[in-house]
Amino acid sequence: MSKPIYVLSGPNLNLLGVREPEIYGRQTLDDVRVLCEARAAAFGRQVVFRQSNHEGQLIDWVQEARTEGAAVVINPAGYGHTSVALLDALKTLSIPVVECHLSNPAAREDFRRSTYVSLVAAGMVSGFGGASYELAVEAACGLAAA
Ligand code: DQA
Q1: Measured distance CA(102)–CA(13) in Å, rounded
Q2: In total, how many domains does the chain have?
Q3: CATH number for the domain including 52?
Q4: Is the CB of 8 under 6 A from ligand 1?
Q5: Which of 73, 101, 115 to mutate to test the pocket of ligand 1 (most atoms within 8 A of CB)?
Q6: What is the mean pLDDT of each run of 10 residues along the chain (146 residues)?
Q7: Residue 109, burial from CB neighbour count under 10 angstroms (0-12, 13-18, 19+)
Q8: Which domain holds residue 89?
């Protein structure tokens, strides 16, 4: 059995669907989970799909993925712009990291234009709403070792 793709979402993404829907869309995070599961299944993979509002919890899951995962897809949300600790955790991985965002941060406020996660990500998918996650899972499946 091949290892799963860890799909991790950061703070406030539990409110997806009701949080600024004009920016983030009306799909819920559970809707996005279903999309990710289906896309991973097409590549013979499973996903471990988790969300937390807490930086340390996300770091614990990244550390878990170090031994249990085939790749990490991460939407770090606001922590992407602030968290050196999350970057340090991602730097411990020898599996691929794909960054994803629902919105296109490059088209928004200046402070969203860069993320710490981008320093370690193989690539980033952004701007396609829930489909950003699906595409990121597909990219992660392509990068993951058999
Ligand atoms: C986000 C973009 C971030 O700038 C923001 O802080 C989020 C969501 C996105 O998915 O578009 O919380 O990561």
Answers
A1: 10
A2: 1
A3: 3.40.50.9100
A4: no
A5: 101
A6: 95 97 96 98 97 98 98 98 98 98 96 97 98 98 93
A7: exposed
A8: 5-143
- In angstroms, the CA 140 to CA 120 distance is 14
- DSSP state letters, 75-117: E-GGGGGT-HHHHHHHHT--S-EEEEESS-GGGS-GGGS--SG
The pLDDT value recorded for residue 146 is 77
Q: Is the pTM of this model over 0.90?
A: yes
| Contact by Cβ (8 Å): 70, 3 | yes
Q: Say whether 81 is catalytic.
A: no
Helix then strand count (H, E) for the chain reads: 5, 5
